[in-house]
């Protein structure tokens, strides 16, 4: 094994390359998983027919509750494990990292069983009066038994900067989930002509099926690399002695803030889920079925699509935490500042063009996924949500950055401030703006949180705003032109081809290729991609014959 360079410049380059490589794996796994998790909705919606919006609303409500319980069951342990494993690995104490993983498994198994039991036997307490949610929550409880162990193992690999196992298991998990969902939906709704609530319950049970497959993939990876891990332990310094109780304490201390921050977006969605209908009932005379349809549009349909772009930021955030933890352990403020600046630039590099591009194709994209049900309103909500995704993505990044430098309590405090803002503005915004109200309230709440975190990071370590501003100008200019090109393709394509589902897909595909190629070309031609992503992109420039 090669010795590490003492040159700070080389360390900075190595860290950037490591960040890019890790981000590439996590981004690929996350993006493919999100795409699978969104594309299934096309056949799913066709087979549900007139029950689609009701079914999707029920699915979304169940998943919001499940997501919160899942985060509590996982208890932030995987991210905490990744952070602490990276910390001890930086000290060449790999034996302690292995013990951390073993102690984490005990916690994950215990919390998984407890939270799954609470969700299964207490399902009626969390339905908000919707009896259809009970079988959905029962089916989702089984996934909570498996996912904590799977997520913990992913965190262990990430602590060693091994992102491929996590990315591949994530993809396999989603693939198995989608296959089970589609098969059961087709059999129940089209072959057996069954009940749509039963079909939704089987679609949510798919989470457990996918989790089992993802865990098996991780087990195979661990078995193949067991010799490598043993070698690291044998060549450790073995100078630190950490009692078992201290290991548990470290895991819990690091994990609790991850629960709150990791559940941030889910908490805001639950606020919408439990407050939207009561506020709308106060604003006018609406039926529950109609409000369920509206909730499906902004709380499920649009959210499912924008999470594809938000996953870019999430993948980046997961990658940054162990790297920042290593720099923080070494006490290298310059390296921390450099990584913070790189993280923001990498976020902008992928998030801004993705969000603007999605907004440009919102109408045909909405038709591709959801047909013509509530077409105009659904497209408007998707376009607005696309802009909102920039703020949500930024939150996932900055909260992870704070955790990476062990500023957990401060990050939680800032999130609570943002939550208070969400609560304060929720009622008037929903009352006067209807379906757009929850989205605006969410944007304001997370914007406040992001501002407070970024201000704190800059105060402590310094963020190179001059570099960020200069490169942001190039990213923003290219993204706006990309938006314009995509909009032009959408206008021309819709006029020429019409707006049925197939033609809308063709229009979206052409717009994505035209806009995407322009953005990639300008980034590579201007060498801005090299500055942000590192020298590896030079190979892509050669393959595309860009000078």
Automatic annotation (TrEMBL):
Extent of the signal sequence: none
Keywords in alphabetical order: Cell membrane, Membrane, Transmembrane, Transmembrane helix
Record carries keyword Cell membrane: yes
Record has Transmembrane helix as a keyword: yes
Superkingdom field: Bacteria
TM regions (residue ranges): 35-53, 65-83, 104-127, 133-153, 174-192, 204-223, 251-271, 305-328, 340-361, 381-402, 414-430, 436-454, 475-496, 502-520
Protein name per the record: Polysaccharide transporter
Natural source organism: Levilactobacillus acidifarinae DSM 19394 = JCM 15949
């Amino acid at each position: 094994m090669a010795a590490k360079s003492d040159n700070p410049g080389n360390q900075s380059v190595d860290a950037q390359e490591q960040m890019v490589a890790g981000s590439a794996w996590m981004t690929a796994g996350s993006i493919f998983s999100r795409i699978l998790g969104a594309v299934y909705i096309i056949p799913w919606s066709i087979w549900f027919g007139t029950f689609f919006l009701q079914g999707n609303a029920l699915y979304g409500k169940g998943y919001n509750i499940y997501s919160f319980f899942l985060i509590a069951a996982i208890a932030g342990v995987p991210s905490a494990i990744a952070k602490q494993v990276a910390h001890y690995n930086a000290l060449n104490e790999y034996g302690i990292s292995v013990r951390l993983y073993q102690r984490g498994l005990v916690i994950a198994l215990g919390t998984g069983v407890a939270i799954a039991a609470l969700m299964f036997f207490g399902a009626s307490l969390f339905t908000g009066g919707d009896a259809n949610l009970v079988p959905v929550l029962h089916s989702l409880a089984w996934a909570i038994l498996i996912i904590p162990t799977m997520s913990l193992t992913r965190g262990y690999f990430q602590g060693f900067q091994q992102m491929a196992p996590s990315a591949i298991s994530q993809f396999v998990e989603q693939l198995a989930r989608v296959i089970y969902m589609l098969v059961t939906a087709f059999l129940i709704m089209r072959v057996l002509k069954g009940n749509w609530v039963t079909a939704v319950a089987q679609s949510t049970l798919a989470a457990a099926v996918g989790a089992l497959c993802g865990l098996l993939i991780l087990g195979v990876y661990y078995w193949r690399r067991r010799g490598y891990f043993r070698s690291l332990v044998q060549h450790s310094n073995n100078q630190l002695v950490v009692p078992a109780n201290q290991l548990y304490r470290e895991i819990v201390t690091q994990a609790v803030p991850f629960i709150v921050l990791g559940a941030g977006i889910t908490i805001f969605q639950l606020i919408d889920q439990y407050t939207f209908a009561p506020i709308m009932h106060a604003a006018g005379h609406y039926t529950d079925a109609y409000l369920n349809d509206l909730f499906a549009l902004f709380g499920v349909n649009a959210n499912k699509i924008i999470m594809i772009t938000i996953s870019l930021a999430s993948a980046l955030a997961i990658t940054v935490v162990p790297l920042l933890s290593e720099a923080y352990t070494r006490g290298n403020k310059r390296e921390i500042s450099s990584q913070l600046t790189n993280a923001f630039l990498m976020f902008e590099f992928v998030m801004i063009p993705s969000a603007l591009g999605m907004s440009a194709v919102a109408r045909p994209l909405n038709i591709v996924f959801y047909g013509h049900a509530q077409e105009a309103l659904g497209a408007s909500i998707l376009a607005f949500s696309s802009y909102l995704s920039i703020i949500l993505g930024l939150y996932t990044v900055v909260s992870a950055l704070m955790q990476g430098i062990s500023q957990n309590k401060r990050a939680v405090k800032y999130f609570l401030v943002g939550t208070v803002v969400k609560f304060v503005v929720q009622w008037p915004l929903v009352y006067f703006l209807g379906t757009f109200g929850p989205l605006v309230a969410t944007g304001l709440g997370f914007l406040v949180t992001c501002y407070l975190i970024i201000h704190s990071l800059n105060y402590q370590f310094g963020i190179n705003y001059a570099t960020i501003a200069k490169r942001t100008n190039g990213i923003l200019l290219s993204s706006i032109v990309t938006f314009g090109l995509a909009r032009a393709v959408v206008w021309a394509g819709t006029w020429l081809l019409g707006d049925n589902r197939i033609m809308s897909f063709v229009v979206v595909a052409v717009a994505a290729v035209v806009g995407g190629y322009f953005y990639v070309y300008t980034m590579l031609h201007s060498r801005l991609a090299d500055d942000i992503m590192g020298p590896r992109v030079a190979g892509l420039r050669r393959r595309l014959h860009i000078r």
